Amino acid sequence: MALTVKSTDDQAVLDAEHELWATTFSYIKSMALKSALDLRLADAIHHHGGAAEPLYALTPVSRLLVGSWNLVSIITMLLSPNFVTTFLGIGAWFEHALPDPCLFTQAHGEALWTMADHDATFDALINDGMVSDSSFIMDIAMRECGEVFQGIGSLMDVGGGLGAAAQAISRAFPSLECTVMDLDHVVDKAPAGTDVKYVVGDMFESVPPADAVFLKVCTSYSFVGPANFFLFVFVHACALRTPFINML
Ligand SMILES: C[S@@+](CC[C@H](N)C(=O)[O-])C[C@H]1O[C@@H](n2cnc3c(N)ncnc32)[C@H](O)[C@@H]1O
Questions:
Q1: Which residue's CA is the nearest one to ligand 1's atom 13?
Q2: How many CB atoms lie within 10 A of CB 117?
Q3: Might you name a Gene Ontology BP term for this protein (predicted)?
Q4: What residues contact 156, with CB distance under 8 A and at least 6 apart?
Q5: What is the C-alpha to C-alpha distance for residues 240 and 232, in angstroms, rounded to an integer?
Q6: Using CB atoms within 10 A of its CB, is residue 109 exposed (0-12), middle (13-18) or buried (19+)?
C-alpha cells in the first residue's frame, strides 16, 4: 500500500529519500547492462526477431548493441573492472590540491596508457573500444559536418588509435592525406591495407606537421586527462598556425 502523506514537508522528505535511493542504486543499471552484454542478450533477441511471434524486440538503445556499427566494444571497455573501480576513488581524488595524478593513476598506480603498454588484454580492450566508438560516430559526423575537412591537403590525427576515425575521413576525402600518430604499442597493431599512414610519436613532445590537426577522444575519457590532450594539441596547433579540428 502506498503511503499517503498529508504534510507537504513530509512529502518533500520522502521525495528526497526516493532520490537518494535512486542515486545510490543507479550503478545497478550499469551492472545490468554489463550482464546483458556478458550474456549477449541483444544478439539473442536480434537473431530471434524473425520468429512468427517474437516475445521480445530490441529498443532503439539495444539496437546500438547489434549490427556492424555496434557499440558493444566501447561499452564493454567502460564497464570493465579497471574502469569501474577507478570511480571508487573520486572522493580521495577531490582531496588533492592538483588534478594529477588522474583518477585512473590514483586507483591503479599507473596511467591508463602505461597499463595498456604492458597488458595486452587491456590494450586490446581499449583499442577495440575506440574503434567501435569511432566507427559509429564518424559515419554520422561525416554526414553531418564532413565539410570541415574540405580543402585540406593533409591531416594529422593525434592519438588516433588504430585509425578508425582517420579511415572514415580518408574514405570520404580520398585526396586528403591522413596520418595517425599514436604510441608505439598502438601503432604496432595498426591495420595494413588502408590509405591511412601511421607514425609513432608522443603528442606531449611534438606533433608532426600537417595542414590540420585532428583530435578525437571518447567523452568518457574525462578522468584520464583529455583536458591535457586538448590543451597540448591545441597549443601545438596554434604554435604551428595549423587548423585544429576537435571532436571531444
Ligand atoms: C581515447 S583514445 C582515442 C583514440 C582515437 N582518437 C579514437 O577516438 O578512436 C586516446 C589515444 O591516445 C593515445 N595516446 C595516449 N597518450 C599519447 C601520447 N602521449 N602521444 C600520442 N598518443 C597518445 C592512446 O594510445 C590512444 O590510442
A1: 159
A2: 16
A3: methylation
A4: 179, 181, 207, 208, 209, 210, 212, 213, 214
A5: 12
A6: exposed
Tell me, in angstroms, the distance from the centre of ligand 1 to residue 217's CA: 8
Atom 20, ligand 1: which residue's CA is nearest?
Answer: 202
Distance CA 165, CA 142 (A): 10
Angle (CA) 64 65 70, round 5°: 70
Query: In one letter, which amino acid is 113?
Result: W
pLDDT tens digit at each of 248 positions of the chain: 677 888 999 999 999 999 999 999 999 999 999 999 999 999 999 988 666 777 889 999 999 999 988 999 999 999 999 999 999 999 999 898 788 899 999 999 999 999 999 999 999 999 999 999 999 999 899 999 999 999 999 999 999 999 999 999 999 999 999 999 999 999 999 999 999 999 999 999 999 999 999 998 765 554 444 444 444 455 455 555 566 565 54
What CA–CA distance (Å, rounded) separates 156 from 209?
8
Residue 126 alpha carbon to ligand 1 centre in Å: 10
C-alpha cell at position 104: 585512473
Q: Is 137 near ligand 1, meaning CB less than 6 Å away?
A: no
Q: What is the pTM of this model?
A: 0.86
Beta-bridge mates of residue 215: 246
